[in-house]
Structure formats: C-alpha cells, structure tokens
Amino acid sequence: MMERFSKDALKAALREAFDLMTPYSGFCPPSCQDCEPNENLMLLPFEEEIIAERLRAARKEPVTFRRDASGYLVEPDNHICTMLNPSGTCSVYDHRPLDCRSFPVVPRFSLSTDDVDFYLANAYCPLGKTPSLLPDGFVPDAQRMWRLLAPMIERSWKAEYNRKNAKAYTTLLPRVATERTRYGQASHISSSS
To answer: Which of 91, 100, 183, 190 is 20 to 30 A from 129, alpha carbon to alpha carbon?
Structure first.
C-alpha cells in the first residue's frame, strides 16, 4: 500500500532541498542566456509557496509563475522564462527554483518506482560541457536533493517533467547507492493535498 505524504511534509522536504543546494547558489551566472532557449522549467507542487516565503524573508516582492494547460507551473512554450529581466538576468536568482539550482544535473524519473536516473545536460550548458567547472559536491548533492523529493512527487508530474526534458537526457551519470531519507522510501503526494 502506498503511503501519502502531507502537504506539510512535502513543504518541509522542499525547504530541506533548498537548504541543501544553497551553498552552490552563486556558481552559475545569473544570466541564463546559454541554457534558457533549451531548458524547460517545471516547479514542484508547493514550490511556488516556498519561493514566495524566501522572497518575503529577503524583503523582495513575490513573483508569479505561469501555468500550462495541465496546471503545472512552468515557463512559457517560447522558452523565455518569466523571471528573466530585460537584461537577461534572473530576477529571483538567490531564490530560484530547484530545477534551476540543480541544473545541469537533470533527473529522469521512473514512473513505476521511486528510482531516479541523472543526466548531465552537456549539449548546451557551458557547465555541463565542462563538468570540471562544477563545484565539488554539486553533482552528488543535486542527486541527493532529487532522491529526497522523488518519493513525494506524483506520477503525472514526473511523466510531464520527463517529457519536457527529454532533450536534456544526453549523458547518463553513473548510478550511486540510493540513500534513505528521513521521509523513508514511499509513494507520491498529490499537489491537491
């Protein structure tokens, strides 16, 4: 029987994921011009609320992300992120979504288990083309972050994420041992919970 996670449990895991990736916040330039025309941003359920909390704590205005026809929070189909300033820099860089924070490490979710494979988007990302430029610990922490969240994400979100990011699945990263999170190995949460 599949266990359901509460909204509070997912939000706690999202906060933990943001904290895990915070040490790497400044390594990627705040301009996404090299990657943006190719990347597909999808926010996790409740992630917009976490970003709004972080922006308010930094005394910045909350932002509004767009939703696609399925209701997922995404960038528009023209791949111009709504968070980019006219100068091409990210207006929420210090509080940007987890999908952006973990890039160029891109997860590919199993739709039948909580397994996740990881790819390096090296076809267009300058850091993906030269992995030696990635900070020590970045790749394993990005993988750890997605493994923490994977059991809590509903299957339909995973399927849409995999579909939207298919062209980023270029270089498979080696598998590492799966570690149990404090939330355990479990099922999925519905974004309507």
So the answer is: 91
